[in-house]
Each structure stands twice: as C-alpha cells, then as structure tokens.
Amino acid sequence: MKALHYIFLFIFLSFAMPLFVQAQYTIKGTVNLRADWQPQIYLAAIDKLNDYYRASTDLVIRIAPIQADGSFQIEGDNLPTEPRFYRLYLMKEQNQEYDACLYFGTDDHNFIHIVLDNNSQLEIYADTEAFSPFGGYDVVGDRTNQLMQQLSNRVYPNIEFYQFRFPTEQKLSAEKLHQDLKLFSDTCSNAMVSLAAVNYTNFDEYFDRDQLFYEKFGERLKAELPKSVYTKNYFRKLNYYGFQETTTLPNWAYVTIGLLSLILLIMSYLTYYFYKKSKQIIPPPKVSPPTENIGDLYDKLTLKEREILGLIKEGKANKEIASQLFIGVSTVKTHINKIYSKLEVSSRKEVVSKIKNL
Q1: Residue 330: what are its φ and ψ, rounded to 5°?
Q2: Segments forming the whole domain that contains residue 96
C-alpha cells in the first residue's frame, strides 16, 4: 500500500512541479572589453521591426556588469514565452543611456541581434583575437542563434560598401547584399531568422522591383508564425510600401458566401421575372365590327320577307303565315331563316326586339 502512495505522490509532483517552477532565461559569455567601453552590457527588446536598429532606454529590459576578463551573465524571468528579437550591445564611455549609439561593421561594432524566449539558455563567446566587442563571436547550444550569427557574418562585412568611393562600386555591393539576403531567407528553415534577413533588406530601394518576393515571404509568415507580433508588423510595413494584405477566410465562410450569392441570384431572377410579367402588354379584346343600322338591314329584305316579318311582329305562327299568304309552311320557314340571317338574329324574340321601333 505504501508503494502505491509513493507512486501517486511521484505522479502528482511530476505534473505539479512545473506549475510552481517559473521559467528563467540565461545569457552568458564573453566580450572584448576595451578601455573605451563601459563595463556593462545591455539587453534591449525589439517589439517592432522598425526598432531593429533603434537604441533607446525605453527598449532596455536588463543591464548586467561585465567583469574585467570580459565575462558577463544576464538572467531573468520577464520575457514572453514566444520567440522574439533582442539586441545585446555595449556603450562607449562618453555615451549616456539616452544617447547610445550603434556602430556598424568596424572595429567599434558594438551589438548583435539574438532570438530569445523566457526559457532560453544562451552562451555567446567573442573571439579574443578580434578587436570589436562581439568580433568573431560563437554561439553555443542554440541552433536559432547560430543561424542569426551566420546571418550577421553575411550582413555586417558588406555594410562597409557605404564607405566606397565610387558610386558604381557602392551600387554593385548593395545589389550583391540584397541578393545574398534573399537567398539566405529562401533557404533558411527558421522563419524568425529568415524574417531578420528580409528586414535587413532595403525596402525603400528594392520593394517596387521585388514586390513579389516580399509578398510571398508575408504568406510564409502567416503560415509559420501566425500569432507572432512581427507578422502583423511585417504587413503594416508592406502596406506602407503600397501592398494590400489579402485576408484568407475559413472554408465555411466561402461556403456561406456561395450559398448567399446563389439565393440572391435566384431572388433577383424571380423579381425580374414577375416584374416583366406584370408589365406584359395585354392585347385589347377583339371588338366585333359595329352592326349595321336596322334600317339598312331591313332594306336587304325582299318584299315577301318584309311581309312575313310584319306577320311575325303581329305574333303569327308559321302555319298562320302560310295560310294567310297561301304558301307552304316549309316555304315560310325558308323565308324566316333568310330574315334571321339578314337581320343578324337567331329567334323570333330577337326579331321582335330588333324591329319594334322600326
């Protein structure tokens, strides 16, 4: 029974201990500390891509002393859990926190960029034969920052093209650096390091010419770093240079839009159909040609038919008419049918009605 208790206790501690142990990052190593550098190292956060080269006290999150042998150690537990860019840098003795300077690609090169999260354990060692504080530095045990170090080795030696005397030489060197950064970004498997490479490129100079490259990299960021603060920041940067981000909708949204569009199309068709039907021209009813005047019709009758018509008006039956006119009943019927036809009637009643005023 005791053994079972120990097993449950071990399981509980295995799951519970991480809840009570707070994550902590550590950065340690060495720099080349000359007399003209302050003996302290600064860790600055880069919350926006435009802060990549901005040195300011509002970005500093840690300051640590540098020992006489150049060793330092920075630690804390105040970093976000997702990877972000940071800068390690030194300041000259004559500089104050508010006027810190970053020096590029010379013996005074005083900074490096790194990627950290709250669990990072990073070791950085400068080459003692180098002159600048981080000259020829190596990274131990962190693949992401080893890639960042490879990237810096490509970038900063080429920064010296700004000091070239001839414009054509400067332009060719800038073009080579741009192509190198594009190649590095396309071939690097780490999206954060690729983003650093793209951010090193000169957007002002190359965005219009290489817009497709920048747009495609934006799609990669949305796929690999959808929640990173830098992804949204990157698209803000693209929008500034004239690119409009397209929003990708979930599949169900496209289905809903499709159904609504179909319903709208059907409703539009039915509305048009009933509208056209209501506006159809109804042909006027056929109007019979006006009947001739009864006097004109009467003039068409023969003398015998007029005589029989008079007897019909008096209410005589066919036999009475035949007896009075000394003709056969069948002859009377024949005359009456002709009278009906000429007067456009079909019965004695209609005949009497039509000729009553005659």
Answers
A1: -65, -35
A2: 21-141
Tokens 């509980």 — which residue? 12
pLDDT for 327: 85
Query: Please, are residues 100 and 58 in contact by the beta-carbon 8 Å criterion?
Result: no
Q: In whole angstroms, what is the distance from residue 42 CA to residue 37 CA?
A: 12
Least confident of 16-20, 47-51, 320-324, 334-338: 16-20
- Residue 243: what are its φ and ψ, rounded to 5°? -95, 135
Per-residue pLDDT, 161: 42
136 and 127 in contact (C-beta within 8 Å)? yes
Residue 162: the pLDDT is: 46
Residue 259 is assigned to a structural domain of this protein:
no
In total, how many domains does the chain have? 3
Sole residue written with tokens 């053994």: 3
Q: Are residues 128 and 30 in the same domain?
A: yes
The CATH code of the domain that includes 324 is: 1.10.10.10
Domain-embedded: residue 174: yes
Q: Are residues 55 and 116 in the same domain?
A: yes
Which of 240, 272, 304 is the last residue in one of the domains? 240
Contacts of 291 (CB under 8 A, 6+ apart): 344
Helices H / strands E in the chain, number of each? 13, 8
Which one, of 196, 103, 106, 187, lies nearest residue 149 by Cα? Answer: 196
For residue 88, which amino acid is it?
Answer: L
The alpha helices in the chain, defined as continuous H runs, are 2-20, 143-155, 167-187, 191-200, 203-206, 211-224, 229-240, 251-278, 294-299, 303-313, 318-325, 329-343, 348-355
Structure tokens given for 67: 């020992």
